[in-house]
Amino acid sequence: MYSNSGVDSSYNQGIYLSSFGLGSDKIILDFDSDCLKAGFSGEYKPLIKIPLRKEQQVIQDDFCETSFRLSPSKIGLFENPLRENDLKVINQVLKLTLIDLYKKYLLLDSRLRKVVIVESPSLPDPIKKLISKILLKDMFVPSITFFPGSLMSLMTLGKLEGLVVECGFNQTSITPVFDGRPLELYSKSTSIGYSQIQTHLSNLLCKHATYSLKGSENKSLLSDSILTFELTSHIIDNFMFASPLSPPLELIVDKNSPKTERYYNVTSDFLFDWYQQNCMASDIEFTWKTLSEVPITISIPGWIRERIFELFFFGDFASDLLGIVPLIVKIMKSVPVDLRRTLISQILVVGGLSVIPNLRLRILKDLVTLLLSDDRCKPLADSAALCDEVDPALQIDSVENDITSTINKNDVFNSHEKDTKNVHYKNSGLVFSPLNRAWIGTSIATSANINGFEISLDNFDEFGVSSQYM
């Protein structure tokens, strides 16, 4: 979690001036089901990341904010599909979270600054309406504007076209963007997100991983009582990676697939045997404390470390889970023919799972494999590429690519200036974390005075927020 303890004095001074209405920066909010990222426009990263949880709510009949308590939950603030009975609780959680955000971290009056919200495909419309109602009617912000997260992510790389894969907590969405416009008609999503990977990991660990008490040689299989949200998150973030070796297609194609479309199954016992036989990762042991503060040593097989994300890549037909790579192929078949090469050549993966080692490269590798195996998409295989992949030949510290050396060597350089600058800035934007690309892109766009439609109290009722969400 980001904290405000490391913010320098000039930043604190900027907050101080903003609190008196002397600044022009806006507040940028990026919601997912498990966290809220917030900060000021013009900054290179969010100021704070606040977890969003709901569990064991205590709500009295005469509800007031002081009677409302929260404790950590295994799930995020909302699930897909969204349950209507949870909306009242979600409304109160969001309200208290936003009030704390302004009081503890932003340190300013909510009435002084306009708000820009990163619009993610994983954010349901009822949640957007709740957020809008809280900000406008309860906190009296001047206005709110929604910026599409897919386009904002591409803007961090100076691009307005591409295929954006947004890995959220509850779902992963794939959105094609062309000419600065998200093509939502062709976007697709799957329920495989961070939480689904956690569930898949827990199931595998209960069957194949062991633990022992400190100082004891007796080992037992892990149980659900030990595999908490914090433990599975720790394992995914620190020990898991995507294997560079893809399983053969003939092993993962479901036999019940129709002729017109192929479905995949990566969780069969036969495949687990293949994973173990072709394992390249070593087994790992680490120490962990249970909820009762008892230290234990956990042992995880190497094949689980490198194969946990096969579900993310191909999905599981038996569980009605769609994989990322087959979804990209579906999108390529559905978009207009003249856009396909442009989109497939600029794939951008952002979100929580995007920082997993080798995950982005495996998506590209498996995508090329599926494209080559499909007669309709085979010509696109040569064009598939990641738009945020570093090109070592175009690093700006190279003498040949340094624009200043070109200027010194040539008296007349106007004809070469454009090409040289393009080379010089080819890898710009790669320094930004994939976790925060949508937020950072919104910060860049807002600082560049790129505006959108502003929703205020004057036109808020036109958007039809139903009383059932209040």
From TrEMBL:
Gene3D superfamilies: 3.30.420.40, Actin, Chain A, domain 4. InterPro entries: Actin (IPR004000), ATPase_NBD (IPR043129). It holds the Pfam family Actin. Belongs to the actin family. PANTHER family: ACTIN. This is Actin-like ATPase domain-containing protein. It comes from Furculomyces boomerangus.
